[in-house]
Amino acid sequence: MDSLRFISSPNVASLTNGGNHWRSKHFIKNIYYPSSYPSKILHHKRKPQTEYSYLRFQQPMLNQHYKCTGEGSAYQDCNEQYGPKVTSRPYSDSEPDVSYAKRTLNFIKKLLGAFFMFTSPYAILTQTLGIISASLLAVENISDISPLFFIGVLQVAIPHLFMAVFFAGMNQLTDLEIDKINKPYLPLVSGQISFTTGVIIAASSLALSLCLGWVTGSWPLILGLLWCCVLSIAYSINVPFLRWKGKPLLAAMCICSTWAVVFPISSFLHLQTSVFKRPLIFPRSLIFAVTFMSLYSAGIALCKDIPDVEGDAKFGIYSFAARFGEKRVFQICVSLFKMAFGVALLAGATSSSLWIKIVTALGHSILASVFWYQAKTTNLSSKSSITSFYFFTWKLLCAEYFLMPIVR
């Protein structure tokens, strides 16, 4: 009972003033609870033993708190031993700025990633390599590889890059509903880029392309850009007599004329006449490039529609693949690609230089073998397998652009 008198004494209130506030608060609650029924404890003979055991169990804690009620260093030592450990953290005014900068950086990354997908990067990379390859056809000796040559290449590559962004944007803006079925990962369909933003990007790219081409004063380049612009609009926009992508022959003509005529011829003539100031000619190497690209781009034009048959047919676009079946069109594509590599082997074999014969024969044999293996392992019943084969043809074309300038 002396313990109960101690608990009810005013000194216990001092326990709430130290660093051990939490322990003292719960200790008082636990001990005071059984003492709130003194009459029941006194009138029952079995309860005092229970009370004694309970108080005995809490005695170490009681002694501990009793010690903490002292003053001076004893109180401070107890407070340090049993009190909560609080560590101070220096405040920095730059923390909100760091968080804001991180969010801004993440936003910029997402925006650039969406823009990257909006521009059809595989086509732009292949196009740029094609322009460089065709420009190298105008090089007659090693002295032609000069700063003037690189400036001339940039004069062609940059305007055509913006024109490619315009074409990709126009195609996606007009195929928004179709891409929900065929290509739901594109940024316009997935909502990463709004329709208004897509229109602004496409229109700005077209304006930049035509302005940069006009500044050069090169008529081969200007005419090539205008021809690409006309074909892009005719291919995509849905107005009477246009929307040529829905007409198989006209769609193939658009793609073939762009890749087989505009890119190689305009690039070569720009370097030949506007940069090197040489007379207008059509060398054997340029004829080979046009012939090869005519066959290869025709194969790409047909292969492109094979994975998109479902969405195209739903919206009334009856491509060759939708009309004649995926398997038959795939076989035609493979035949066109083989013919293109056959032309390359023939052009290399008829060269007057022995080292050109060896390099072109070896290089094109490797490319043709890799292509044959990929075509043989393509599963025509799988959309992903056909799509993988389609992108593989672009990679193979990039490799061909390294061999094309060697053929003389």
Automatic annotation (TrEMBL):
GO CC terms: chloroplast membrane
Question: What subcellular compartments does it reside in?
Answer: Plastid, Chloroplast membrane
Report if keyword Transmembrane is assigned: yes
The signal peptide stretch is none
Membrane topology value = Multi-pass membrane protein
Please give the CDD domains that the UniProt record associates with this protein: PT_UbiA_HPT1 (cd13960)
Keyword field: Chloroplast, Membrane, Plastid, Transferase, Transit peptide, Transmembrane, Transmembrane helix
Bilayer-crossing regions: 111-139, 145-168, 189-215, 221-242, 249-269, 281-303, 329-348, 354-375, 387-407
GO terms of molecular function: transferase activity
Enumerate the InterPro entries for this protein.
AtHST-like, UbiA_prenyltransferase, UbiA_sf
Question: Could you confirm whether the keyword DNA-binding appears in this record?
Answer: no
The main location class comes to plastid
Family to which the UniProt record says this protein belongs = Belongs to the UbiA prenyltransferase family.
This protein's name: Uncharacterized protein
